[in-house]
Amino acid sequence: MNTLAKKIPQTWETTTLGNVYQVVGGGTPSTEVPDYWDGNIPWVTSADIESVRQIKIRKYVSEKGIKESTTNKVPPKTLLVVTRVGLGKIAISETSICFSQDLQGLIQSPKIICPEYTLYLLSYKLQYLKFDGRGTTISGITKKQLTDLVVPEKAEIVQRRPLSCER
Fold it and tell me: What is the pLDDT of residues 49-58, one digit of tens each?
């Protein structure tokens, strides 16, 4: 049992990220195919995530680039979690976006759980995982490790979302 689990009030339930989010991976369209790039859909890497609300978009992909590669286009309010290079960075997309294989996208319905709640919880948990709870830096986490992460949920957070989540 980790430190966070010990601090969860007994009146709260726990679940896993995989139960509240659809976790999708990213990919990189071939840079050797010009038709895949310079479209109108933002595509980001871990280097583009500067903070929880600041994603610096430097590249754009085309619909063809999405269809013919492993990247995925995710809707606004998707949590972008860096799981490899730059492990621990996390952000919320403000628009539909595509991303590289160094990230995972957590897609959910805002009626289920507030993405801002999960963002701050994951910020803590990812830093804990990054140093593996024992002071040893790890280089990445798998999709399974991400989906299996235990998160606390209180009925009020899930059913009566904070005002910041209502848009």
Answer: 987 768 999 9
